[in-house]
């Protein structure tokens, strides 16, 4: 299939790096993408992937620039990760959602116009943040007392090939590692996953999919899942789940049965296609769908600022 050039956006935008949180000598920064023009604009918190260990706020540059260029403000985050990182990552992200909502002028948005997106392990973190905005472990870091006191609820979630079930993905990696002609990625993925989660009980507790199947009381904003085909790292069937389809289909089934709205969009494209192969027609189509979804679920008209209520 011939390559396609990314269509130009409709907005110029400004970018800046700011510190949103500090842990001792460790500064956590957000890269803010602010569309130019008359706002307010919809805004999203963006979370990078990397087996909960690698990469930083610059990882999904294509996504950031595409969204900002199409009138969606972005706050791309650094957060604590690596060994023993759960639930500390969620505490940083929950704080960042509240920080953006308490400081909407930084992104020319409003406190009621904020969603969340993420890729791979970042997609997992986005979904878990959205489902548990009031979890006391995640909401443990207080905003400054003179800030607008808001919660971490979001209007919608976009996930690019998420690790929706850390325990299931860990077991899938093990199955592949033990199979003939094993791919080279499972040992590293298993090692980093176990270091982050520490044990399989935590993987289960922190699984959005398993939380649904445990009938936990969770928030359920609208969800869009973008998935490439032939992606054994993120898209597989769990033979022990009792569900005949993929983990993606299983999540959508469980989410919609609980009354949530969830869309699953497959594209015949390589791994990490929108971020690493943005010139492909499939990438353009996927990013256009993401843009339309965010603008539909975060309509700017006929809403009012939390600060004005």
What do you see in this structure?
The structure is a single chain. The longest helix is centred in the last third of the chain and has 17 residues, at 281-297. This protein has helices at 61-69, 88-102, 121-131, 166-178, 186-197, 200-205, 208-213, 247-257, 273-276, 281-297; strands spanning 13-23, 26-35, 43-47, 73-77, 114-119, 157-160, 223-228, 262-267. It has a single domain (13-300), classed as 3-Layer(aba) Sandwich (Rossmann fold), CATH 3.40.50.1820. Helix content is 34%, strand content 17%. α4 (166-178) runs antiparallel to α5 (186-197). With 309 residues, the protein is α/β, with parallel strands linked by helices. Residues 1-5 and 302-309 have low confidence and may be disordered. The chain contains ten helices and eight strands. The radius of gyration is 18 Å and the shape is globular. A hairpin with a 2-residue loop joins β1 (13-23) and β2 (26-35). An eight-stranded mixed sheet has the order 1-2-4-3-5-6-7-8, with helices on both faces.
Please outline what is shown here.
The chain has about 300 residues and is of the alpha/beta class.
- Tally of individual helices: 10
Q: What percentage of residues falls in helices of 4 or more residues?
A: 25-40%
Share in β-strands: 15-25%
Domain tally: 1
């Amino acid at each position: 299939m011939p390559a396609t050039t990314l269509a130009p956006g409709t907005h110029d935008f400004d970018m800046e790096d700011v510190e949103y949180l500090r842990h001792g000598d460790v500064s956590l920064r957000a890269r803010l993408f602010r569309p130019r023009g008359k706002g307010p604009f919809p805004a999203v918190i963006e979370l990078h992937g990397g087996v909960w260990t690698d990469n930083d706020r610059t990882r999904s540059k294509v996504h950031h620039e595409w969204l900002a260029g199409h009138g969606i403000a972005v706050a791309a985050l650094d957060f604590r990760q690596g060994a023993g990182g759960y639930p500390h990552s969620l505490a940083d992200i929950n704080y960042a959602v509240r920080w953006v909502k308490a400081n909407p002028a930084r992104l020319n948005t409003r406190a009621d116009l904020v969603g969340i997106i993420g890729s791979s392990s970042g997609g997992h973190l986005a979904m878990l943040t959205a489902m548990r905005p009031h979890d006391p472990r995640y909401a443990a870091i207080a905003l400054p007392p003179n800030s607008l006191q808001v919660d971490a609820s979001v209007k919608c979630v976009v996930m690019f090939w998420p690790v929706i079930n850390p325990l299931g993905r860990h077991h899938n990696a093990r199955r592949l590692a033990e199979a003939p002609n094993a791919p080279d990625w499972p040992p590293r993925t298993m090692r980093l996953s176990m270091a982050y989660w520490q044990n399989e009980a935590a993987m289960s507790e922190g699984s959005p999919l398993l939380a649904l199947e445990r009938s936990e009381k969770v928030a359920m904003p609208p969800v869009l899942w973008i998935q490439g085909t032939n992606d054994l790292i993120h898209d597989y069937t769990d033979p022990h789940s009792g569900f005949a389809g993929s983990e993606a289909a299983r999540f959508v089934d469980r989410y919609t049965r609980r009354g949530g709205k969830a869309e699953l969009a497959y594209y015949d494209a390589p791994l990490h296609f929108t971020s690493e192969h943005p010139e492909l027609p499939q990438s353009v189509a996927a990013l256009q769908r993401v843009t339309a979804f965010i603008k539909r679920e975060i309509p700017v008209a006929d809403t009012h600022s939390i600060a004005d209520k």
